[in-house]
Structure formats: C-alpha cells, structure tokens
Amino acid sequence: MDKHSIFIRSGGLAIKVAVVPEFATQLKELADAFGDSSAVTSHIELYARFLEHCAVHNEIATLIVLEAFCQSYGVPKSDIHVVVQQHALDENAVQLVLRAYYLLWNISDACRCYRNAEHTQLPALFASDSLHLTAMFGGQPGSSNYLTEARWLFNVYRPLLSDYVTHLAAFLESQSRDIRLAPAYKKGLDVLQWLTQAESAPDSEYLVSAPVSMPLIGLVQLMQITVLHKTLGVSPGDLARHFSGKYALFV
Question: Per the database record, which ranges form the Fatty acid synthase subunit beta N-terminal domain (predicted)?
Fold first, then answer.
C-alpha cells in the first residue's frame, strides 16, 4: 500500500513521516497544529517534540511517529541512550528525547519499539569475562541533591517507574507514621508529592537528616536499577547475575 508523506516543520528543520492513507489525515492535522519549537536545534529533538504533541491528542498517531523515529535512528537495535550520546545533545535535549521515546512503554502495540532479551546486546561492561563487577548501595549525602536526581529519573522514565515508585512511596509514608518513628518525620515523608511538586519538598536540613535521606537514597538507587534492567530488556535476576558482589555502604 502506498504511503503518504507528512512533513513536520519547526524553524529551519523538517522531518518526514510516512503513513498509510487511513491515518494520513489525522497525522496531517496534528502536524498543522504543531506549534513552532524555536528551541529545537536538531531533527531528533523535533521528533521528540512532535511525539509529545501527538501523545496528548492521538495514541495511534503517536505510535506511527514513534515507529518512524525508531526507523530513522536504528532503535531499538541501537540503544536509545547510545543514540542520544552520539548526537551530543545538551542536558535538556537529552531529557526531552528520552522522555518522548519512552512515552508508549506501557502500550502493547509499541513493544517492538523497545528492547527485549531476544535482540538486546548487553553493554561491553557485562560481556567481558575478565571484569568482576560489584554493586554498591547506600551512603548519606551532605546535600539534598538526591531528590533532584530522583525527579530527573521520574520525569524521564515515568512509564517505567510509576507503579514501582508509587508502591514504595506509599510504603515509606506509612512507615513514617508509625508511632515509634513519627518524631523523626515531623514534616512527613510524602515522596511522591516531593517528586511531582518540587515546591512542596521540605527544607534541605530536613532532607539530609539520616531518617529521611537514607531511605530516599535507597529509593533513588532502586529507581536506577529498575530503569537499567527494563531498558536493557532483562529481568532483575539476570541483571544481578552479572555482578559478583553487592554491598551496602553507610557513611
């Protein structure tokens, strides 16, 4: 079946998405309604902006654009993080592209756009028999930057993390209300609200206190592990087998 070419433009940039006639009108309307993104400086960013635009209005169109994105950049055969690195994007652009790419993570029709164990080539770090890897968890920082890291992860990888973080956040909050622990949590432990509404987070002095920082640092590290095993397309158990040791470190 012949496909129609829909062009999406922003400033001096343009990308082309091939679509079957059945969905051409829908995609054309979305392209026409797409506002100019003057901050976009590369084609991959333009794809990402348009993906987010489509996601608000039309899931089928979003899937079509995601598949076009994957074809253009060789994803998922090439890991999206490698693709982003090759384009030498700045921090904001990296966040934009990764967030847009993972938008449809929980949609079954989009699974072919993401990595799985059948076609995933593990990183070279895991492929070498001469290297013995150790995972280290724990630590207590001198600042509340760990919450910034958690927000970044949750913003970029929310479809991968939402259920897990929601569950753990509810557990931590319930524990903080225990009569034996409550005196240490005078400003609560509403992690989910602190992640989604930065202005609601308590002051740094409270965030770096041991009863608050230690469980939240653990949560951030578990978020990193969750993102790692999901984006690699391997189970937590398979990921753990690549490590010869796991240690908890408390400073």
Answer: 22-102
Residue 37 lies in a domain: yes
243 contacts 133 by C-beta, under 8 angstroms: yes
pTM over 0.85: yes
Domain of 155 in residue numbering reads as 124-249
129 plus 46 within the same structural domain: no
Please compute the mean of the pLDDT values over residues 53-60 and round it to a whole number: 95
In a domain, 119, yes or no: no
Helix (H) / strand (E) containing 134:
strand 133-138
What pairs with residue 247 in β-bridges?
136
* Rg, Å, the chain Cα set: 21
Please write the tens of the pLDDT for every residue from 8-54.
998 889 999 999 999 999 999 999 999 766 678 899 999 999 999 99
Q: How many domains does the chain have?
A: 2
Question: CA nearest 191: which of 161, 158, 216?
Answer: 216
Q: Which of 171, 208, 204, 176 is nearest to 189 (CA)?
A: 176
How many Cα atoms occupy the beta-carbon half-sphere of 72 within 13 Å?
18
Tell me the backbone φ, ψ of residue 240, rounded to 5 degrees. -60, -30
Residue 31 and residue 4 in contact, taking contact as beta carbons nearer than 8 Å: no
Token pair of 220 as six digits: 């951030």
Phi, psi of 61 (to 5 degrees): -65, -40
